């Protein structure tokens, strides 16, 4: 029985996926040559590919650029007051809304920048906040 179980486990986890894995590995190595990723330790490679999962939200606040706003504008103060009261999961959802990912890129939070812009519309109460994920801009009506 032990031999059967060992052979079955080997088949399921190794033999049955060998061909699809080889095809995946060829494509992966074409896009990310081994000589470039072998320099990373496994944990470092994971961070480069997945991003950071631990956040210092106060540092994020410090890295913001304001356009047509000042740090002390009431809208901005209200935004950060509400933001810091959010649970961790909602903060990550905001990050995904802003940048398209709920993680910080491998370069780290100290290099993660975004802007908060006043869209300067005539009726700001009729406009929801929206984001440009490519440029990491939050358009926040007054």
Automatic annotation (TrEMBL):
It comes from Eudyptula minor. The keyword Cytoplasm does not apply. Keywords: Transferase, Ubl conjugation pathway. GO terms for molecular function: ubiquitin protein ligase activity. The active site is at residue 134. It comes from the Eukaryota. One of its GO terms (biological process) is protein polyubiquitination. The keyword Chaperone does not apply. InterPro entries: E3A/B/C-like, HECT_dom, Hect_E3_ubiquitin_ligase. Pfam families: HECT. It is an enzyme of class 2 (transferase). SUPFAM superfamilies: Hect, E3 ligase catalytic domain. Its EC number is 2.3.2.26. It catalyses: S-ubiquitinyl-[E2 ubiquitin-conjugating enzyme]-L-cysteine + [acceptor protein]-L-lysine = [E2 ubiquitin-conjugating enzyme]-L-cysteine + N(6)-ubiquitinyl-[acceptor protein]-L-lysine. Residues 1-142 form the HECT domain. This is HECT-type E3 ubiquitin transferase.
